[in-house]
Amino acid sequence: MLLKPVILVSKAKLAWGFSVRYAGLSAAQPALPLPPPTTVIGFYAEPLARLLGLSEYSHNDICSPAGLLAKYTLAAGAGLDPESPSGLTVYSEVTHVVSLPYQRERKQWETYAWSVQALGASYGPSALLLLGLVVDAEGLARELGEKVSNVIDYLAWAGWRLGSKEGLVSVTKAYVSDAIQSNDMFSTLLYQDKDIVQPLDLGYVREIVMWRPSSSVFCGASIVPEYISYYLPSSPLSSPSTILPPERPVRFKTRRGSRTYCLDDQVAGLCLAVRGA
Question: Which class would CATH give 6-100+114-274?
Answer without folding.
Answer: alpha beta
